[in-house]
Amino acid sequence: MHKIQVYDTTLRDGTQAEDVHLSTEDKIRISRKLDELGIDYIEGGWPGSNPTDHRFFQEIQNYALHNSRIVAFGSTHMAKKTPESDPNLEALIKAKTRVVTIFGKTWDIHVKDALRTTLERNLELIHDTAAYLRPQVDELFFDAEHFFDGFKANKEYALSCLRQALQGGAEVLVLCDTNGGTITMELARIIQEVQKEIPEARLGIHAHNDSELAVANSITAVDLGCVQVQGTINGYGERCGNANLCSIIPVLQLKMGYTCLPENNLSLLASTAHFVADVANIGAFHRQPFVGKSAFAHKGGVHVSAVRKNPMTYEHIVPELVGNKQRILLSDLAGQSNILFKARQYGFHLDKDDPFVLDLLSQLKELESQGYEYAVAEASFELLLNRTLGRARRYFSLDTYRVLESKKNPADNPFSEATVMVRVGGMQEHTAATGKGPVNALDNAMRKALEQFYPTLREMHLIDFKVRVFAINDTGSYSGTASRVRVLLESADQHGQWMTVGVSYNIIEASRQALEDSLNYKLFKDDQAKLTKAIREAEQP
Question: Which strands form 496-504's sheet, in the order they lie side by side?
């Protein structure tokens, strides 16, 4: 299979997204993860532009990368300087990378209005910069900035820029759709014209996503013969982002027969996408193709029935090929197939005609109509499943609770206090606690009462807390401040994470439901682990 160079620019172009900020340490961590994935080139940034990038190129030299080559990025030298006297080129050399990418202007309007120099001088800048750098590195790439717009405005000049870069020693000429406005048919035509005019050139593609075509344009470019594809993990980038490597790589490798990553490494793609999102502190996009949590999620009963018989009916690839997995969701759209599938996941092998299945399906649809969302809150559903089967132990009951909010002075923060009466077995605990807000106070009070009976509750902690307001009621009119709310609570311990749900017209009550489910699920999970361990020990000779 033909090998395509995969060039990642998450650490440079990706950080130009308004919500992405990476420290030097973040860049090091991401680089090592991309190396593990098997990315060919990792663009580390612009050495002369800021202290973070300067430090990165110093620090990365202390790490041995096995698959990736670090790339330093910079521009052609300044019009009023020579290559030898240009501080940006000096910074590129001092970065000590064996691969360098330079970008140059190829659109005449940018030469005149941005660089404020002549078209002839810009050609000199491109050639002389490439010729100066090439003997000092193993590989040199030229990013033809705004190439497609430049080609449409002044074809001959844009081609002249490419020729100068090639004559100067650039090994790959990367055609950039910097404004992201080129449609795919237009892009294909221009690439074919470039190939006809400069047949000896090895071409690359660098697409932006302003027209939602970056992935399609990149794939088309490779299909036409481009040897290098540039992009970012999760499509991060300025404005609408860059071409998303998490989509490009599996399309090229699984659907078109190209080689992008080392053998067996494609299964690391989903975990890499999630890792980069975590480091960048950006919530994962669940509906992202291939690697998103929802990419292979099935909700409708007809769909679930079909994928249980043959996953190919509603899945275009095997999810595990990219490190993802199939998920069956539960909602008011669920059918018996959803219930049977989820029950089997939890170890219950039920028949579709079992009255339990019909009972649970009826409960599920009724609760979902009230606003409960079990497609997300799978821990709450697992508890519901086991309670309906009569297999869930009642660990505690919250007899009463009271939450007080007060504020004495306008400048003070509100004071939150919760009082609870919790029954465990035949004993009732009456406790109170304060907190940072009413939900935190209620959480503290319940834990204070329960931890003496269940010490493992100290292991769990809150990860996320989401509130959704249903402003429109069942009759279709607006409820205003009397709206029903749904609370989704994500909790975790050292073994995993789980989501629970609560719904009420009272936000404290909805939070109480989600919190109570979360505590119950932790205790239920601990009991299941003890049971599994006991069975294994009993089976040992």
Answer: 461-470, 484-493, 496-504
Cα–Cα distance measured from residue 57 to residue 210, given in angstroms and rounded to the nearest whole number: 30
Query: Is 384 part of a structural domain of the chain?
Result: no
Say yes or no to pLDDT of 352 above 70: no
Q: In a 3-state reduction of DSSP, which class is residue 373?
A: coil
| DSSP label at residue 44 | E
| Sign of the alpha-carbon dihedral angle for 42, 46, 51, 52 | negative
Tokens of 232: 């970012």
Instruction: Map residue 7 onto helix, strand or coil.
Output: strand
Q: Is residue 353 part of a domain?
A: yes
Q: Say what the pTM is.
A: 0.70
Are residues 128 and 57 part of one domain?
Answer: yes
Residue 527: give its domain's CATH number. 3.30.160.340
pLDDT above 70: percentage of residues in the chain: 87
> Residue 421, CB half-sphere, CA atoms under 13 Å: how many?
5
Residue 354: which domain range? 297-370
Task: Point out the least confidently predicted range of 207-211, 321-325, 357-361, 435-439.
Answer: 357-361
Structure confidence at residue 528 (pLDDT)? 80
Yes or no: say if 512 and 401 are a contact pair by the CB < 8 Å rule: yes
The CB density around residue 345, as the number of other CB atoms within 10 Å, is 13
For 243-258, the pLDDT digits (tens) are 999 999 999 999 999 9
DSSP 3-state helix, strand, coil percentages of the chain (rounded to 5)? Answer: 45, 20, 35
Query: How would you classify the pairing of strands 228-231 and 5-8?
Result: parallel
472 and 494 inside one domain: yes
Per the CB < 8 A criterion, the answer to whether 429 and 449 are in contact is yes
At residue 538 the predicted structure's pLDDT band, cuts being 50, 70 and 90, is: confident
Domain holding 438: CATH number?
3.30.160.740
Residue 148's identity, in one-letter code, is F
Tokens of residue 341, six digits: 């599938």
Tally Cβ neighbours within 10 Å of residue 383.
Answer: 20
